[in-house]
Specification:
This protein is mainly beta and about 180 residues long. It has a domain of about 80 residues: OB fold (Dihydrolipoamide Acetyltransferase, E2P) (Beta Barrel). About 5% of the residues lie in helices and about 25% in strands. A three-stranded antiparallel beta sheet has the order 1-5-6, with no helix packed on it.
Length: about 180
């Protein structure tokens, strides 16, 4: 028979723990849930994952969750954070912050106010207007659709014919 002191100690020991996620999270509801294994003998289904407002992620199976259990009862657990040792970037500069994914895409905010974005995929920004205050340096090709430089329209402007006999006409592909 378990003494009251032993019962309280067990609840205190189970109040916080680590484990492994054993399946991909279910991110379809109002709260993301995941199955965790706190140890080799126990599996807990549908554990809610709590994120700070404005942030969300879907950790891969095998990630290490930190979970709190109300009253030390693991059936009343909630995950506060995940750690995935296989995809976590290493050697982050002192004072830096990294937003990353399992594919290796990284946004690094540096302590001096700089930022670096790197990855192998395409970065797509869907904003009606993007304002850049400062110099823009491009290494590589630039493809531009319709637009203007100052008051000159990219696609519709004409050049003055070097021979002085009218204008060149609008730009044509391949010229």
């Amino acid at each position: 028979m378990t003494s009251p002191v032993e019962s309280v100690m067990r609840r205190v020991q189970h109040a916080m723990g680590f484990g492994r996620t054993s399946t991909a999270p279910d991110d379809t509801g109002s709260v993301q849930t995941v199955q965790i294994k706190p140890n080799d003998l126990q599996t807990i289904d549908a554990v809610p994952v709590v994120f700070p407002f404005g942030f969300s992620s879907v950790a891969p199976p095998g990630a290490v969750p930190v979970h709190l259990s109300a009253e030390g009862d693991r059936t009343k657990a909630a995950i506060l954070a995940h750690h995935d040792p296989t995809s976590r970037p290493r050697n982050t500069p002192q004072g830096g912050t990294v937003l990353y994914d399992t594919a290796g895409t990284k946004l690094i905010l540096t302590a001096d106010g700089g930022a670096t974005w790197s990855g192998t995929g395409t970065l797509t920004l869907n904003f009606p207007t993007i304002v850049i205050n400062g110099q823009v340096l491009v290494s590589g090709n630039v493809t531009v659709g319709a637009g203007t430089a100052g008051s000159i329209e990219f696609l519709g402007h004409e050049h003055i014919n070097g021979g002085g006999k009218g204008n060149s006409g609008p730009p044509a592909a391949g010229s």
